[in-house]
UniProtKB/TrEMBL annotation:
Keywords: Signal
Residues of the signal peptide: 1-21
Gene3D superfamilies in alphabetical order: CAP
Keyword Signal (UniProt): yes
Domain SCP: 71-198
Highest taxon, organism lineage: Bacteria
Record protein name field: SCP domain-containing protein
Pfam family, one: CAP
Amino acid sequence: MNSTIKHSLSLLALSSLTACGGGGSNTGSSTKPAVQPPIMVITPTVTPADIQQAVPSLTYADSSQEFAFVTAYNNFRSAMGLGLLTQSAPLDKAARNHLSYVMSNSSINGGTVDMSSINPIYNIPNFHIEDPSKAGFTGIRVADRVSFTGYVNTAAIEEGSYGAGAGATAAVKTLLATIYHRQGFMNQGIRDIGVAVGADLAQTTIINLGFGVKSQSNSSDYVGVYPADKQTLVPLFASPEAPNPYTEISDVLNDTHRRTTYPVSIAIKEGLSLAIESFTITEAGHTQAIKARIFTSANDKAISSSNAFVVGYEPFKSNTTYLVSFKGTANGTGISKNWTFTTAASCLNVFTCN
């Protein structure tokens, strides 16, 4: 892997020195050539990171799905160079409350709410919205629900996933195989986490992410990529999500795995603007990049200005190494980054690859 971030400013000053002779008998004068000072290269000041690199031990039972989920998620954040998350009792309680609401009211369980449909008022899936008239209501949006349980900051993010009988680690892998939900998982400011995993066959999982009293912050020169450099067992395709980022795919559940690669992403310091000159994926031993879609804030309003994703139009080949190449700028500062990853031998889905 090679990574370069370059920015320089050259200052040039010219000065003239004139020498004049002394003594009455000196009738001439001489001029020395102009002296040019050395070029000064000014390196941009890097604002250091303020992130949690260690957190208190989890209080979930070691054998619980919640313990497995948070452990897997913090492992991902560590690999990405992001701050770890601290377990929060109020966020745990809010997650349990919302899980109870979803279980009671989902049409899958005999309720009247299609949790995957988009709420016409809030323009997000009903999975993340509670109806005051329904059983188990504790707040319309996640900010209301974490406030109800006494969390210190109502700025919060809610994610939802399913273990589908394969456990909470599978729920993490499912989220990482998406675009929008992975972006939420890569949030650099979140500090706390609360999780609740259902006992239903789908293992419905609610994740609440909070910013605490003070948000975490990565360094100003941060560049994170996923899959990580030299990562192995990378899934071959993406996981369906709601809303659906692939506008040309109408049958999301049946076609996403046939018409996508696993998403590849790059992120810079939140708040900066990422501009792309090129972002490609090339099979090892080949020169032609695969045909792919690129998602940025310029063509998808759900993508933040500091993130970009590239997704091919058909699954990766199994047992194959790919080279990713990115060239662009972060607020005008050049970025050039290359890395590789190797895919799994086979995948029944994004969480059963070997």
